[in-house]
Amino acid sequence: MKNFEFYVFVLVLVSLELIATDAQFTCFRKYRERKGKEFCKGPLKNRKKFNSPETCCAKKGKGFAMSMVKLGGKNKFQCMSCSVLKKTTLAPTFPPTPEVTTGLPEWGRWNPCTVTCGYGWRNRYRLCDDCDKNHFNYVQSQPCLVNFYCPMDGNWGNWMGWSKCSADCGGGTRTRVRRCNYPPPTHGGKNCPGPGVKEEPCNEEPCKVDGHWGSWSQFTLCSATCGSGTMVRTRTCDNPPAQFGGKQCNGPPYEEKRCKNKNCPLHGGWSMWGPWSECSVTCDTGVVTRTRTCDSPRPLFGGRECEGSATDTRDCTANKQCPVHGGWTSWTLQGRCNAPRCETGTSIRSRSCTNPRPRNGGRPCVGRSYSRETCVNDENCPKSGEWCNWNEWSQCTATCTGLNSMQVRQRSCQCPGPQAGGSECDGSKYEARECVNVQPCNPYGAFVGQRGRKDEDSYSTSVNTTEDAGKNDEDMKVVIS
Length: 481
Description:
481 residues, mainly beta, 3 helices, 6% helix, flat
């Protein structure tokens, strides 16, 4: 019943607005409600205005509005659903106000509405300077509607009860929630500030922990190095230790067992040093040695070996120097060719027996101290030139293939160049070809037009043609002499 009275009130205000201002409405093709928000899309007939909501909704309209106010998204506007007209009775009609000629000044423009959204009032005054603007003959008021739906910010509801603690002891958490529904945000209103979930610790008192034994340690060494003794191993109540009133570990913290060594270890001892040996060389410097053995006594029953070296050495000197055999040095560079210009002759290279020199009766070097090699005296001899590598191809002379579409490259006879009267390189210095990767001038790839160059007769036609099975193009190469 309250909703019905509200819709009737809305239609009354809209009707008064139409009567007083002859207002016009924008009609929309679509009306939507999503996530608590209401909006319209698609104005009808290029945003043509309608005289009343009934006229809009009687056609294809689904919603209407007195002004087009965007709601942030593309093609979204504030509006009122046409279903409002179906849920309410028709607004009351009022007879037109008769025009009374009173001789009073004309009315001025209406002031802005007193609200920015929803329903308010607006005034207008007669255009006069010395009249009482508060007199009813000089002031006129009427209701106004701006943006039928006002934004309403959301507000939190009450906190719900705490959840069960996640742990019985040792520290847990519990949560409680609240909802943004008192009221929820509507018509573009703001969401509730702050979190919707609260968490706090609970049952923080520590839990009882019973003690458990850790692993046994390794047995200790026998208490006697030889004969009978004992070995011990231990464990501790730390896996975990008893805490917060928990029970201690059951059983002893240590364990013993008997051990027996039949024989005690006997460590080894060195014998006396033996006599010195003869010198290790018969010339220059050598060494003499003497030895001892670990048998006084020998190590028994796990006894340690003797410490130190079983051998002792020192330098000794013979009564004469050792012979040094001779060794060749490296060969020298090949000498000058002993021959007339441009003819064959010989050149000589040498080496010496000084690496090292023979001494103290050492053997001399074996072999010759010089070597003859056949050579050609090419000093100032004529040498023919050699071609260098071809340069890159030049840019194409045309935009399509034909006689005028050419690319040229060249090379030089300088790798090396002719020397002492030698001949020039054999072959052409220049090379030309038909452009590649260029569209043909006609569908058959034939030459079009004339070359039109003065030196056309200087071209020698060395043409290599390669047919491309896919495109039927021709690749022509011309060598320029």
